[in-house]
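To fix ideas, we close by showing one paired sequence and structure record:
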Amino acid sequence: MGSRLPIIALTSGEPAGIGPELCTALAREALPARIVVIGDAELLRSRAGHTGLAILPYVNGAAPLTDGLEVDHIALASAAQPGVLNPANARYVLALIDRAVTGCLSGEFDAMVTAPVHKGVINDAGIAFTGHTEYLADKTNTAQVVMLLTGGGLRVALASTHVALSEVAKHLSAAGLLATLRVLHADLQLRFGIAQPHILVTGLNPHAGESGHLGREEIDLIAPVIQQLRAEGLHIDGPLSADTVFVPANLAKADCVLAMYHDQGLPVLKYASFGQGVNVTLGLPIIRTSVDHGTALELAGRGKADAGSLIAAVRLAAELARKRTESW
């Protein structure tokens, strides 16, 4: 990368949501990266409002354009109306992600950042889709990925992602936990530069199972995995009760918390950082960050959406790209 700015592919996300207008808002920010927005040029122009923002065509290998928004144009399948989901554009949304992944894998882009998509409308189009994390794992042939969110001074990773609560216990396994913790430990070292990461692991049940009286997953599954990894030299504590793991005394000595499921760990992080949080997918051969919020259909096209999380995601992607280059 040398002294040049990292080149970041920014997918504009669900066209009926706030993603396109958040992307245009970045043109007003001084960011440590060259941003290439992937999306429909006319859609982005319309969501920029009457700001006079120039929408300029991105050309691979050309010098960066500094007087507008560089856009790698992919055409909408159908006209997009703010706040109104249209399954006809589901494949367009996935095409944005595919373009960014291809560019990252080829070295054209140094990282990718994703604006929010709407899982429901993609499934309504007849396409099985559970989220960016799982989709990117499939597209990059990655066996194990980990969802990590950062913000408010916290890092919280998930042992399971977009899984119904009733299915979480069945979804967890010793092999899965071992793989998750190994990826988490490795990327805290590689991507975040933490030499000896200290990871706290929650239990699944209230009070971490209360010695088996409220469930045995901690005894039969989680504790043996932790013991095995500690024997390998990893600095991991747990299983800890999820209702106290986030107290300051615990967090002060830790680099990350691994929660067992989505709504066990993320409410705390989002309370601490909403609007500034960043989602990072660990384990991939590429760098990917994202916003910590959804499509906010009710705000789309009104000029009231806050770009704070997207700005934070771009800044973190640029930082991770620089660290990767420095490690080579």
In short: The first helix runs from residue 19 to 25. The longest strand covers residues 34-39. Residues 1-142+284-328 form a domain with the Isopropylmalate Dehydrogenase fold (CATH 3.40.718.10). The radius of gyration is 20 Å.
